[in-house]
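Many introductory courses stop at the sequence. We go one step further.
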Amino acid sequence: MPTSPSLRERTAEATAPVPPGPAKPVDGRRRPERAALLRRIGLRVLALAVLLGLWQLVTALQLWSPVLVPSPAAVWQALLETSGTHDGVRGYQGHTLIEHLGISLRRIFIGAGAGAVAGLVLGVLMGTLPWVRVVLEPAVAFLRTLPPLAYFSLLIIWFGIDEAPKLWLLAIAAMPPVAVATASAVASAPTALVEAARAIGARRGQVVTSVVLPSALPEILVGVRLAFGIAYSSVVAAETVNGLPGIGGLIRDAQRYNQSDTVVLGLFAIGISGLLIDAALRLLSDRLAPWRSHT
């Protein structure tokens, strides 16, 4: 007489691993993505080639003086001269181009990093405490509207002409974007999630760290990208006084002697390194908030 399976047998059958089905084809999905990536790269290379061709054409036609618009060959020669030792002169003012750029990047990471941390703290306070927002929002908006050179002279009076005023300038320039983005994102955190966290007994600090900040992370990272972009655009202003060595100081010093090829080279160095920093921050944003990149 057949007997019904026991509870243990039924449990074993229910939890038995399901044999894997046939593998899904992935090449069909990857090929369009790869083709789209190659098209984007090709278009960017083509656009760069067209710009270089127009630049070479303008200089070959001598529409402007070489002092005003240096040729690509002159800029390339400036790159070679500032990247090594030529005729007993090392780089530009005793430092190679990569050393000038590295010192400026160190200033940017220290100053903008401190400003981003301060902006994050202020943004969380402004987003969670209404009275703090009422008190601090006008000051943050006021700093956000000021150009860096407007308060750089005052920083020099306060801190001298060494590293301190440069770092303070970059920190002040980087703080408002992070504070504004963080405050807006924190204030618009999902109400249902916040109430659910409070319903299970979470304290205010736990709600902020476990619910509010993770939901606000994409907007905070956008603010950080903006902050580093603003700080990078302010590095020339930060290095107008005693900025050598530094890429901004190199540009300012070359401008005094009408060395436009070196000025253009410095602009290229700032622009290319700025693009790399922005790409790194974008990659970090995709890693920390992957749902943002797919929305």
